[in-house]
Each structure stands twice: as structure tokens, then as C-alpha cells.
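Re: duplicated header lines in exported C-alpha cells

Our pipeline writes sequence and C-alpha cells for each protein into one text file. With two proteins the header for the second block appears twice in some exports. Here is an export where it did not happen, for reference. First protein block:
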Amino acid sequence: MEFNQHLVLTPQGFLEESKRISAAIQKAIAEGTSVVVYTRRERIDLPTEDPDAQFKMSTDISSALAELVRNLQMKPSFLIAKGWITSYDIGVNVLAVQRVKAMGQIALGVPVWRTGDESKFPGLPYIIFQGFLLTFVDCFDSSKISCVSNPRPAGAGPEKAAFCVSVRKDH
């Protein structure tokens, strides 16, 4: 599912986009379908060179992506977050992770953590994917995650993913 982060430039449009994606995620998860949410790859240029405005825009986008995870009503089988800011926002601010168990890595430099009992989803495998190390495709191709039912949605290009959740019907 493409999240159009360019709508951050129009607050009402950005809010509506967040609601649209959140509803689509809930529907897909209820049907037992894995979900990949990704942002557009085209650059957003603000009409100002103000670094504070640029930073605010970036954090607004990251916060909106994190909010999509916050709105999950069902525990996913696993969650992958791409990017340091997004991974941090989801892990600390949304999942409320304070302790993790390191389970290993699914690819070089891509850790898998099991969230602690205090988190929103205790025992959740949480994969923190840094986009500068590999492409998202490399991550899936080398992973041992067998419950990913559709890591490459038609036309989406999973290398664009901001996060991915997978739900098995037995959860």
C-alpha cells in the first residue's frame, strides 16, 4: 500500500491519507493478509530552505507511519520497520518496548528482536531494517521469515517499504 507522504504539505489531505491507509491495513489484516506500507520515492521539496521546517516535515511523516502501527488492533506475526527514525518511533513510542530479546539477524546488519512483556504486542518479532545497508528485497530474499505471504505487492516494489506486518489467522 502506497502511503502518499507528499500530502504532508496539505494537512487535511495528509490526515485523510492516514485514515485511508489505516482502514486498508485493518481490512487486510482481518482477512489474514500480510501488509507492506511504503512511501513514494519522489523527493518532497518545501518552498523554503529552512532546516527546521524540513526536519518537522520528516518527523510528521515518520509519526504518521508510526500511528498506523499504533492503530493495529490485532497482534501481527511480525513487524519490520525500515529506517532509523521510523524504527525508533514504532519501537519506543508505539510498541512501548523497554526490553527485547535478541533473536539474531535475518541478514547482515538486520536484527530481529522479540519484544518484552511490557510492550503493546508482547513476544512480537520486530525487525529493524536500515535502508542504507540493503534493499528491502535483499532483506526478504535472505530472510528466514516464512510467514510473509506477499512481500512484493504488484507494482509496489518492496524496497520502498516503510513497514510490513504479517498476520496469521491463528493469532
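Second protein block, exported in the same file:
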Amino acid sequence: MEDSIYIKRLKERLRQNRDSKVFLSLAEELRKKDKMDEAIAVLIDGIKRHPDFIAARLTLGRWYLFSGMLSEAQKEYSEVIKQSPDNIFARKGLDEANKGLGIVEEVIPLSLHKNREAVIDRLNKFLEEIKIRFVTSSSLTHKDKDAVVNRLDRLLSAIKIHFAPSSGNPL
């Protein structure tokens, strides 16, 4: 199958500037044309030049996962997590790859459990700052201030419930 004009342009741009991040767009277009081997090769080469390009690693990990190349997917997702520990897409992908490989450890909860108290503490401080601003604000009536503070209290309570260990939520 002949390359489309767009693919030819992307290849030319990449040929002119090997350090361009256009390789990700080229790889996506090649995949759309069922040229998966070439698409993966383009991604691998681009990632060698841009090892910190998270979007490219996530794309490669996803393609590996869907192609059943679980060990390769695991490697790519692990690299993303090293660079961006809170990247939920990488954590979900790594979980899926691990499960496919028979590794039952869940990656998502391990990281987030450690941060639960810090998140709740930051939310409490944030709520207190907002309460102080509203109390000292002259543009709102007392009734409006109470309504806003009550809504924020309910929001904080909902967040705390979401983070509570007994809720069954992995966070």
C-alpha cells in the first residue's frame, strides 16, 4: 500500500529534522494504515532520541499491550512511571500488563496510599484558606458566605470519603 501524502510529508519532515517530535504523528498515521511494524519502529527510534517524551512511551506501551507484547508494554509503562509517578495512564497500563503476565500486584494503590494523609491535609488547609477569604470578603452577604462554606465542607467531606480506606476505594 502506497503512503498517503500526509505520511510522505511527515516522513520528509522527520528526515529533515531527525530530532523532531513529529515521529509520534508519523507513527500514529502508519498505524492507521495497518503498518504496525513500521509504526513501532518509528516510535522506538523516536524514543531513543527523546527518552523523556511520555506521550510516545504511553503510545508504544498501549500498542504493545493491545498486540499481546506484555513484557514490552510493562517496560514502557514502567519507564513512564519512573518519569511521572502519578501518571494514571501508565499505572493502569502497567496493571493490565502485569495481570496479563500473571502478576497480581496492583500498581495504582501502592503509590496513592502513601499520599492519602498528605492530600487530606492539603485539602483541609485549602478549605480553611477559602473560609477565611469568604469571612473577610465584603462583597458577599452573610447568607451567601454560609452557603459557599457549606458547599465547600460537603465537597471536602466527599473527598475524604473517597480517600477513606474503608470505602473500598483503592485510593
